[in-house]
């Protein structure tokens, strides 16, 4: 048993568990976007950052992929964490300003419209890749994937055409945190 | 292998998303008297801590069935089944009820109220799990040769690959020597003579290999069997049918070409098509002069034109090599991509072959010695001089021999003439390994090279199966079983099966019981719902399980609530998404997921009405476009239709059972469907369950169990768009009226049986009991007595006294 604390609460877990899993199971809420229990954690959106103090120094880490260790002290909403999270929400909001979830998060963290150039107004996709991962890991096909690179990165079907692999099961729709998949779904299944 | 069900119920709080809306302790109370061995509430059963807690409980209490009340099985079930597999819990032993998206997120109401609905759905799940029968998948041997039928060139590539890997094959082909194969090849791959050097090597290897048996091609009389044991009946010239046995079947079918229609051009000897040119080339019979290849016949599609361009290129190359003065030009339509590589183009330039595109909007015109075409590049009309004009060949119809073969296999013809293997859009885990392979250009116009690759790939598929079998991992996933005692061999199941999973039996063998090929079966279940004798069973998805589930749910429903069936794809997808999007709808609809609406036996509907349902709503995929089991939802429509007819015969409202279609991406449509249904039903009072109505409902249920009714229903299962009808019916109304007549008779018979079930009665007594005129029932009574369904127990006041059972 690995014993440690989250927000001062003494908790324990087994090797291989992540901070996020233990926190959630103890009713401690950490905001997430790219995390879904159905698939392996990805550490993409960085929203689930927490501060980990291992006695020597403290660091801000991504809780969904950070394995628990003996004796660490985890803070889920310290000033430092909130500051990092605010920046992340800011950047994500510019990526997908149309998303209702992000607008709510922005409200919670007091994020105002930023000085960065925001994506299109109705833009929803945050490139969290949940759709891609759930298609691969849960459904077992590769109906859609990331396309392009850098600033032009996007979720798309192979060759932007109807995917031969897609079984139109709609699992990607179910896990999409922003509803962006709804617009893409018809292109993917053809 | 039967063991007692020990059901563990795991309720998820989902971080408050469920527990804030549904009072889970109340659910626990409501489920008190259900037969579970463990019931617990967990914060997140899906996360590592929760999974560990679940595993511990399963180990402690020796649970062998798991019911999770949480979110959608579409996303989450795999995580649970993967995690529980080391404990010996098979995927089919895990059931999930979507409390989050079907109850918590979409309904208004107090947590106590919602707990009632959640408990009803969970109790249904428990009832279904209780009846589940564990089964052991059977390991299948994979021995004997691979049967390569169809005679296509890809068969040779397959045979070579198999021989190289030390696997036997039987190759059925009309050509018995390499030369014959090469001579026949231009009919399927015009222009391929240029490859004869490389092909000779391949053919030599196949014909000399001791592992390949090249046998003359014979018409296939039947295909039966399972993976590892397919049996082909071949009709020999003397009429005898010989049987060959093989482990897998590779169908190598190539599209044959026929001469194009170029009579209208005229020009005599100077105008010919590609097939004829090739013949002349082989014989060295080409007249001097410039040759123009014109890729015409747009009516056969762009793919065919591309194929013809390729053939024209190969022939022009041979022509240029042998007749330098020919200076060939290939005139191809500009709306197809030139199917040539950069290397090909360099070679063409070197050989003096010109490629010229024409705009297909303006049809090129042939004159004597010249033809004009419209160039898409400069919008000018140009003239091209020719001495010999070569037009395209056109794809022919499949030969009767092939068509015969297709009857037996899950391969169908598309409208363009291409062959397609039935491909159901299902998740890979729901499809077993491929055991029947379709290769060759019959499925798609393809170059020789690609077709040979396909053959090789099919062979690798067969080798993969052998490898799996050697490890003992080739297991037959038992999906459908057919009770050999009950089956009468009518063949309805194999007629309507969309995946070819129910095999045909040998012709002429009479009423032989059918069997299911589990490697082809997709678990759509329409066969089970159709079988007139109720011999077909979907394992772990039986009508009995569904019955138990529905009975339990119904017992907890109110009179003004609706029993809803949703299919695992469209209906459930849209319902789940409604929860994700936070839409809200009336909580009076209890959703029961089924794999496909087509898998619901019609007796399930009647049973639901008998057991207290007042209204039923079915939500499935949009027919034809998105049904994952091809016709499942169409088949369901007919069953619902019959139920409606029976309801109206019993004097009840037809609209008590309704169908709805919804796409997976349309949660709003789902909500408006449910709301509209609830609104429409608001004025409809619950069924007045007096003695007479109860008897009528019972009679409906009995009617739907009658093989005659089920048979007529089964034969009428066609897509509503089709214009052909079974038997002597000529139109939709006729067919429907026949159905109605049968229902009327059988419904009356069922009521009579019910009436005399407890005590023998004479006709006036029966008529009074049924509240019908005596003369209406007497012909039926006479008929039934003749058939032996009822017996005459004696005479009373000049009337016979009828009773049930044999004399």
What does this structure look like?
The complex is a heterodimer of chains A (190) and B (807). Chain A is of the alpha+beta class and 190 residues long. Chain A has 3 domains: 2-77, Ubiquitin-like (UB roll) (Roll); 91-123, no CATH class; 130-189, no CATH class. Chain A contains 6 helices and 7 strands; from the N terminus they run ββαβββαααββαα. In chain A, the strands form 2 sheets. Chain A has a 5-stranded mixed sheet with strand order 2-1-5-3-4, sandwiched between helices. With 807 residues, chain B is of the alpha/beta class. Chain B folds into 5 domains: 1-136, Rossmann fold; 146-256 and 397-472, FAD/NAD(P)-binding domain, CATH 3.50.50; 258-394, FAD/NAD(P)-binding domain, CATH 3.50.50.60; 480-536, 2-Layer Sandwich (Alpha-Beta Plaits), CATH 3.30.70; 759-807. Chain B has 25 helices and 34 strands. A 5-stranded parallel sheet of chain B has the order 8-7-6-12-25, with helices on one face. In chain B, strands 14-21-15-16-17 form a 5-stranded parallel sheet. In chain B, strands 2-1-3-4 form a 4-stranded parallel sheet, with helices on both faces. The longest helix of chain B is centred in the last third of the chain and has 24 residues, at 732-755. Classes of the chains: A alpha+beta (190), B alpha/beta (807). Chain A binds chain B through residues 13-14, 16-18, 21-22, 24-27, 29, 36-38, 134, 137-141, 166-171, 173-175, 179, 182, 185-186, and chain B through 15, 43-44, 46-50, 52, 72, 74-76, 78-79, 425-429, 569, 573, 576-577, 580-581, 626, 628, 664-665.
């Amino acid at each position: 048993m690995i014993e440690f604390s989250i927000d001062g609460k003494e908790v324990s877990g087994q090797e291989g568990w992540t901070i996020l899993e233990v926190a959630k199971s103890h009713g401690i809420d950490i905001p997430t976007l790219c995390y879904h229990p159905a698939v392996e954690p990805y550490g993409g959106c960085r929203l689930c950052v927490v501060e980990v103090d291992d006695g020597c120094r403290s660091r801000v880490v991504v809780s969904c992929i950070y394995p628990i260790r003996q004796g660490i002290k985890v803070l889920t909403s310290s000033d430092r964490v909130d500051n990092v999270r605010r920046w992340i929400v800011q950047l994500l909001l510019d990526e997908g300003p149309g998303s209702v979830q992000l607008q709510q998060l922005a409200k919670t963290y007091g994020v105002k419209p930023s000085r960065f150039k925001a994506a299109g107004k109705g833009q929803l996709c945050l490139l969290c890749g949940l759709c891609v991962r759930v298609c691969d890991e849960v459904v077992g096909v590769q109906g859609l994937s990331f396309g392009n690179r850098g600033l032009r990165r996007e979720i798309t079907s192979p060759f932007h055409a109807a995917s031969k692999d897609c079984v139109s099961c709609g699992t990607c729709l179910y896990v999409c945190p922003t509803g962006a998949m709804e617009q893409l779904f018809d292109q993917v299944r053809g | 292998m039967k063991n007692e069900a020990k059901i563990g119920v795991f309720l998820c709080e989902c971080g408050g998303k469920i527990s804030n809306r549904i009072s889970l302790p109340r659910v626990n109370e409501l489920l008190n008297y259900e037969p579970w061995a463990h019931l617990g509430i967990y914060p997140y059963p899906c996360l590592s801590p929760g999974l560990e807690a679940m595993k511990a409980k399963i180990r402690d209490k020796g649970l062998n069935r798991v019911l999770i009340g949480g979110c959608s099985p579409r996303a989450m079930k795999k995580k649970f089944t993967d995690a529980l597999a080391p404990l010996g819990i098979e995927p089919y032993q895990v059931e999930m009820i979507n409390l989050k998206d079907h109850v918590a997120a979409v309904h208004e109401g107090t947590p106590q109220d919602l707990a009632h609905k959640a408990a009803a759905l969970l109790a249904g799940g428990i009832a279904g799990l209780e009846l589940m029968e564990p089964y052991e998948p059977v390991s299948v041997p994979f021995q004997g040769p691979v049967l390569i039928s169809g005679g296509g060139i890809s068969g040779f590539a397959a045979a070579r690959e198999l021989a190289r890997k030390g696997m036997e094959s039987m190759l059925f082909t009309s050509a018995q020597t390499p030369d014959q194969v090469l001579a026949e090849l231009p009919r399927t791959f015009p222009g391929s003579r240029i490859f004869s050097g490389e092909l000779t090597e391949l053919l030599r290897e196949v014909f000399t290999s001791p592992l390949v048996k090249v046998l003359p091609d014979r018409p296939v009389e039947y295909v039966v069997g399972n993976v590892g044991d397919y049996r082909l009946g071949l009709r020999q010239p003397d009429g005898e049918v010989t049987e060959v046995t093989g482990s897998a079947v590779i169908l190598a079918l190539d599209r044959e070409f026929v001469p194009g229609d170029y009579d209208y051009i005229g020009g005599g000897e100077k105008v010919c098509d590609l097939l004829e040119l090739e013949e002349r080339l082989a014989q060295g019979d080409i007249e001097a002069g410039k040759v123009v290849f014109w890729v015409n016949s747009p009516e056969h599609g762009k793919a065919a034109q591309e194929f013809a361009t390729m053939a024209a290129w190969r022939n022009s190359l041979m022509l240029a090599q042998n007749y330098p003065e020919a200076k060939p030009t290939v005139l191809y339509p500009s709306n197809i991509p030139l199917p040539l590589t950069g290397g090909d183009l360099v070679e063409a330039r070197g050989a003096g072959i010109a490629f010229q595109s024409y705009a297909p909007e303006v049809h090129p015109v042939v004159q004597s010695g010249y033809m004009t075409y419209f160039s898409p590049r400069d919008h000018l009309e140009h003239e091209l001089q020719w001495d010999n004009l070569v037009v395209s060949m056109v794809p022919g119809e499949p030969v009767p021999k092939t068509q015969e073969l297709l009857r037996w296999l899950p391969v169908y013809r598309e409208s363009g003439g291409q062959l397609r293997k039935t491909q159901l859009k299902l998740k890979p885990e729901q499809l077993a390994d491929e055991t029947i392979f379709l290769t060759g250009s019959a499925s798609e116009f393809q170059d020789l090279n690609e077709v040979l690759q396909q053959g090789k790939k099919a062979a690798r598929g067969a080798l993969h199966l052998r490898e799996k079998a050697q490890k003992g991992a080739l297991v037959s996933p038992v999906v459908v079983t057919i009770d050999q005692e009950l089956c009468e061999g009518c063949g309805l199941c194999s007629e309507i099966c969309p995946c070819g999973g129910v095999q045909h039996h040998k012709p002429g063998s009479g009423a032989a019981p059918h069997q299911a090929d589990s490697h082809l079966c997709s678990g759509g279940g329409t066969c089970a719902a159709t079988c007139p004798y109720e011999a077909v069973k979907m394992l772990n998805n039986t009508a009995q399980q569904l019955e138990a589930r529905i009975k339990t749910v119904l017992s907890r429903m109110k009179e003004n609530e609706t029993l809803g069936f949703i299919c695992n794809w469209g209906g459930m997808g849209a319902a789940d998404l409604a929860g994700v999007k936070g839409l809200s709808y009336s909580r009076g609809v209890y959703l029961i997921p089924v794999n496909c609406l087509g898998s619901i036996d019609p007796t399930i509907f009647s049973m639901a009405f008998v057991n207290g349902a007042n209204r039923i709503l079915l939500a499935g995929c949009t027919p034809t476009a998105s049904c994952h089991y091809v016709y499942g939802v169409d088949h369901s429509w007919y069953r619902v239709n019959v139920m409606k007819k029976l309801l109206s015969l019993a004097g009840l409202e037809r609209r008590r059972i309704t169908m709805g279609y919804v796409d997976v991406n349309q949660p709003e449509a789902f909500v408006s469907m449910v709301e509209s249904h609830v609104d429409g039903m608001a004025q409809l009072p619950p069924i007045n369950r007096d003695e007479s109505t109860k008897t009528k409902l019972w009679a409906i249920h009995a009617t739907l169990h009658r093989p005659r009714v089920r048979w007529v229903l089964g034969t009428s299962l066609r897509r509503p768009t089709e214009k052909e009808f079974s038997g002597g019916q000529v139109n939709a109304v006729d067919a429907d009226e026949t159905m109605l007549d049968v229902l009327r008779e059988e419904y009356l018979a069922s009521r009579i049986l019910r009436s005399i079930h407890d005590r023998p009665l004479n006709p006036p007594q029966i008529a009074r009991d049924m509240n019908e005129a005596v003369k209406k029932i007497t012909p039926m009574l006479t008929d039934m007595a003749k058939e032996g369904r009822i017996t005459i127990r004696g005479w009373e006041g000049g009337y016979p006294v009828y009773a049930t059972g044999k004399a």
